[in-house]
């Protein structure tokens, strides 16, 4: 009997082993097949990705990080660089990877020219994101001859001239349009007689850019320009100029400076008890002005071309998400960062729309297809065409209240 049950047990064990081996073999075969299929899928996916990437398009950058306008130039350049970093996480543009290659030229025109030549010849960029007015205007003929689309942080009215600047594009209202809009606002809101205005600016192409246009427009709409004063970009004392201005007692003074000189003007005006309403164009405006000006900034009005990071606007979402992915915070950035981000975004949109994004001519044609580009509140909508490279003439105004810029108008023109 024992022998019988021993034989039965052996038979059961043998059957179990056969079933186990059979199932294991089937499972192993299935696993191998799955791995093979996954491998083939990954290889196919890699092949598709490789096929989608046609190459790399390089965009040049001229940055002022250490020069006379480095106070606003540094966050602007950071915004441009950040947009290209963000872009790298979004896949190819028109089938190409995009790369931003740039350097600091310290707001010196000869250095800008050297850097431009390097970007064009050695780096072989297809387009350029520039910076200052003096260098942008100095490079216009080269840019036109080399057929390199050029979006800079200069909003000089001269760049609207299509005969002289066929490859320059303005991504925000020109300085002259900003001044005209500010003057129009003054005219519409002044209540006691003929408004009087002073103009404060630095002796550079940037500083002087809107001055004659502002005087012409003021005369046209019935505003009297009673004084002009030149204040250096790095001035630490504007008392002599303000004392001269005070003799004319203007109702308003329009400032064409960056944060440093604007802070000097506002602090010295407060010490002197000057009650003139100061209005700064876009580079005089922004959060960076406030900590260096203190309570002397209260009541200051600024031209706003781009969003403040603390506004509730849909366009800020992608910036916020990208920064958080890097462990950074949107609230630690300022308006000039947003401004640089937008300039890069507009250039990339031109590349996206280009039939041939590998050439300057192709990118120019792509930029000229941009029609009412919705920047979701980051800036006024932008439109270019074959005969007009001025993207917009719209601005907002903001006033410093309790140590913070608060927007006081919708987008306005003149």
UniProtKB/TrEMBL annotation:
Listed InterPro entries: Leu-bd, Peripla_BP_I
Arranged from A to Z, the UniProt key words for this protein are: Signal
* Family note: Belongs to the leucine-binding protein family.
Q: Which residues cross the membrane?
A: none
- Cite the Leucine-binding protein domain residue spans from the record: 56-404
> PANTHER family from the xrefs?
BLR6548 PROTEIN
Q: Cite the PROSITE patterns for this sequence.
A: PROKAR_LIPOPROTEIN (PS51257)
Taxonomy, superkingdom: Bacteria
Species the sequence originates in = Schinkia azotoformans LMG 9581
Which N-terminal residues, if any, form the signal peptide? Answer: 1-20
Name of the protein this chain belongs to: ABC-type branched-chain amino acid transport systems periplasmic component-like protein
